[in-house]
Amino acid sequence: MAEQARTHGWRAPKDHPAETPEVLYFRYHGYRRRQATRLLHIMPREAVRDLYAKAREWARERGLHDAQDPMASLVRFAEHLLPLPPFEAWLKDREQYPLCHIEDSTDGPHAASIGAPGRLDDRRFDYGGRTWTVSLHVFRDGAVWRGFLRFRELGLKRRYHTANIFLEETAREVQRRFREFDRTTLGAFLRSVLP
Prior knowledge:
The chain is of the alpha+beta class. The protein has helices spanning about 1-5, 20-40, 45-60, 70-80, 85-95, 100-105, 170-180, 185-195, and strands spanning about 120-125, 130-140, 145-155, 160, 165-170. Strands 1, 2, 3, 4 and 5 form a five-stranded antiparallel β-sheet that branches.
């Protein structure tokens, strides 16, 4: 719970209103669970049985064992064993390498989805004598990745969104296509969404 207390000092960037400290905390714990689960999937079955016995004892000592969901104890124990980064290090890495974190979190309740797309990239450009920030937002839709653009004029809060204009096999390919857009292309998309 120390990580949760540290999120209270965190403030979302202006273009990230949905990522409250609580949301980031849950995303971090989702990351930890995924890493622990992946470890369990690559272990030989016999080793998992032995590990579960230790996990059950460890969880009982801490009052965490859930007889109705024995896998929860095993996953918590695997999290405890892995040298996973603390919240602050994870947050910094997520900010520096958003693509890796978006691709990593394609499973689970906090994955980038239609209702909660992940911001992957930002660019600034000038249009009509004003400076704009354009953000690329992506989400997984079945076997493909979709994406849209969000525009915000520097210093103002109002945002303008395109429809889903990207459809690719990977989030990396969506980002590559976005980076190919020049100022003229970005200006055309901006014009299409301005009132």
